[in-house]
Amino acid sequence: MTEVLGIDGCREGWLVVQLPSSSGAASASVFRSMTDILQHYPTAAACAVDMPIGLPEQKAQGGREADRMGRKLLGKRSSALFSPPLRAWLELQDYEVVRKLGVSRQSFLIWPKIRDLDTTMTPDLQERIVEAHPEMVFSALHGEPLVTHKRSQIGQNQRIQLLEQRTDGFFSNVRALCEDLRVQTERKYFGVEDILDACALAWVAWKYNQGKASRVPEAPPCDERGLRMEIWY
Predict the structure, then answer these.
(1) Which has fewest Cβ within 10 Å: 85, 131, 145, 170?
(2) Confidence (pTM)
């Protein structure tokens, strides 16, 4: 069966939500690396990942054009979208050195995930593995930017309801999915917000595979390796 995937970084590696190509509900798994994901799902039609694809060569205020445009779409939730580092910075390991570049510790902590994805990506792979942002997806489902925070109970309930309202039934089991993953893990490697983010990413992967997703910018530039710098939602 051909599937589409939503991929979100978590403490243990990558949290993957899989949607079947036609009918059926979402399922979820955790993987250590992007290579493990691609080996496990060699026929995946589309994957949407919440991590930058296409890294800038020079520092610019507000990051890439995609980042600046994405923040405008997010409104009050614009702070949820980080600017990615320059590719050359990914070799730096000492945060005291990185801090002088104006990088927050929160951003620095996800650099291993960015490295994992960046070393995997090629222009050919980008035809089926695309960058997306969960908050942009939820804003699109809601019809306007959300004002609730994804870690609050109110915010999580709102995002669950937005997923459940999909008429295709992919997320009819989203509440059980959250509970099942908690039971299956010995320790808490992720929160409900991570599972909901991965569901939103799976949804945009499905839309991308159907030719129905949107992106910013419409005509994205490419980085030095030929990777498009764009965000889908």
Answers:
(1) 145
(2) 0.94
Q: Would the CA dihedral through 161, 233, 115, 7 be positive or negative?
A: positive
Query: For residue range 100-117, what is the model confidence (pLDDT) as tens digits?
Result: 999 999 999 999 999 999
> What is the residue range of 155's domain?
3-53+127-215
| Any domain includes 47 | yes
The count of C-alpha atoms lying within 13 angstroms of the C-alpha of 181, restricted to the half-sphere facing its C-beta, is 24
Strand order in the sheet with 27-31: 27-31, 13-20, 3-10, 46-49, 129-131
Span 192-206, pLDDT tens digits = 899 999 999 999 999
**b or e along 40-55 (b: 16 or more beta carbons within 10 Å of the residue's beta carbon)?**
ebeebbbbbbbbbbbb
C-alpha closest to that of 190 among 61, 44, 60, 14: 14
Amino acid, single-letter form, for residue 143: G
